[in-house]
Every structure is written in structure tokens, then in C-alpha cells.
Amino acid sequence: MKIDVLTLFPNMFSGVFGESILQKAQDKGAVTYDVHDFREYSTHKHRKVDDYPYGGGAGMVLTPQPLFDAIEKLTNEGETKPRVVLMCPQGERYTQSKAEQFAKEEHLIFVCGHYEGYDERIREHLVTDEVSIGDYVLTGGELASMVVIDSVVRLLPQVLGNEVSHQDDSYSSGLLEHPQYTRPANFRGMTVPEVLLSGNHAKIDEWRRQQSLKRTYHRRPDLFDEYPLSDKDKDYLEQLEKE
Ligand code: 6GU
């Protein structure tokens, strides 16, 4: 996968792309990151990238020219048509299923504005997706794009050592993950649930399933709207409701 990022603050990305799984993914050849300062594409004599809004009002608006030129160049360099993802608070709320969609693409271009708005023609003619990572306001799209890129890259084949390790993730199964424990079995009198020490894998699977359901019931009951529950799951949830 090729990932291009267009930003006025390219230095923000070096730490995140240069550590841990995102760095390893690049070392393994699963992904290449290219971070571009789109100010360099501005044809304005002082490399301006924003201007006052028509009609007046506070704030500045990113002009179309630098982003159109940058994206046209990056599109022509690639072999397949890229997804062009605009990071903005007005975008569609980002989810794991969107991450799974993005992970199938060969080329993603992320566009990050910083405090400025975007000229509407960027949205209408250049962008394929508009994404927000949640209902709060950030100073720019940079941090949000890093969140999205992290969630996509970890889904690429060979990036996580243990291929099944993201199948159980909260959200990828549609339910929240069950609790986990490791040694010691007794830490300062706080003990690990007996069933996990039993070696009975059928019982352990059942306990984990129930814990997942319980956690989802208490913390994120909205997730059940999208989730196909088995009869056994429904019985357990009914019992939980009585308690
Ligand atoms: Cl993508 N951008 C900004 N500026 N704020 C956000 C966001 C994006 N997602 C949530 N808040």
C-alpha cells in the first residue's frame, strides 16, 4: 500500500511513522509513507495556501490550487486510482468497517487542513471520502489522519505477527473484547478467575463470550444494533438483565 499525506506540518508525522508497528510495516515493505508539505505546490509568489472567505467571516479558507496540483501529481504517479481522504470534523464518523475498506486499497491520499476551512470545490471535485474521528474538535486533521493510518496499516497482511490477533479485537468482531489476565494468578490478593486456570477450553471460550457480552451490554449497548446474537447469547443477556 502507498500512503501519501498532504499537510502544512509534515514534521508532526515523523515520530508516529518512525516507531513500532507503523515503522515495522514500512520495513517489511507492506506500506510506504510519503508526507508532503502542500505549500510547496503553491504557485503564489509567497507560497500562500489560504485566503479570506468570500462573503466575509472569521478564519481562513484553503485555496484549491495547491491541493488540486498536489493530488493530480500523486494520482498520475500511481498505477491505480487513489482514495482521497479529507480529514474534517464534518466528515463521516470513522469506524472499524471503514478501516477494513481502506485496508483493501492500493493507494490512499490523506488531506489534512489545520484550523483553516477547505474551499468547497476541494470537497466536490477532488475528494472521495470525508472522515472525522469523533465528536470533538481538533486543531487540525493531522492527528486524526495518524489515527486512521494506524488503524489501516495494522490490518495489512503480514503487519501483525500473529495473523489472528486482530480477529478478536474490540469492534472487529462487533463486541467489546473480554478481560485478559497474565501471571501471577494471585497479585496482592487480587486473583485471576478460576475458569482461566482450569485448562477447560470449552468453558474458557464460554466465559470469554459471556464477558464480551457483559462488557458490551454495560459500556456500548448500541453495538448490539448491528450484531447478530445467537440464541445462547440472547439467553445470557436476558439473565444479565434480570441481575
Ligand atoms: Cl478529521 N479534524 C478536526 N479538525 N477535528 C476533528 C476531526 C478531524 N475528527 C474529529 N475531530
Automatic annotation (TrEMBL):
Compartmental location: Cytoplasm
Biological process, per Gene Ontology: tRNA N1-guanine methylation
Swiss-Prot/TrEMBL keywords: Cytoplasm, Methyltransferase, S-adenosyl-L-methionine, Transferase, tRNA processing
InterPro entries reported for this sequence: Alpha/beta_knot_MTases, tRNA_m1G_MeTrfase_C_sf, tRNA_m1G_MeTrfase_TrmD, tRNA_m1G_MTases_N, tRNA_MeTrfase_TRMD/TRM10
Matches recorded under Gene3D superfamilies: 3.40.1280.10, tRNA(m1g37)methyltransferase, domain 2 (1.10.1270.20)
MF terms in GO: tRNA (guanine(37)-N1)-methyltransferase activity
UniProt EC number: 2.1.1.228
Chief localisation class: cytoplasm
Keyword Metal-binding: no
Domain tRNA methyltransferase TRMD/TRM10-type: 1-225
Pfam families registered for this protein in UniProt: tRNA_m1G_MT
Domain of life: Bacteria
UniProt enzyme class: transferase
GO cellular component assignments: cytosol
Coiled-coil blocks: none
Catalytic activity of the protein: guanosine(37) in tRNA + S-adenosyl-L-methionine = N(1)-methylguanosine(37) in tRNA + S-adenosyl-L-homocysteine + H(+)
Positions that bind S-adenosyl-L-methionine: G113, I133, G134, D135, Y136, V137, L138
Function, in words: Specifically methylates guanosine-37 in various tRNAs.
Family the UniProt entry places it in: Belongs to the RNA methyltransferase TrmD family.
Quaternary state and interactors: Homodimer.
Name used for this protein in its record: tRNA (guanine-N(1)-)-methyltransferase
Native source species: Bacillus solimangrovi
Lineage, broadest ranks: Bacteria, Bacillati, Bacillota, Bacilli, Bacillales
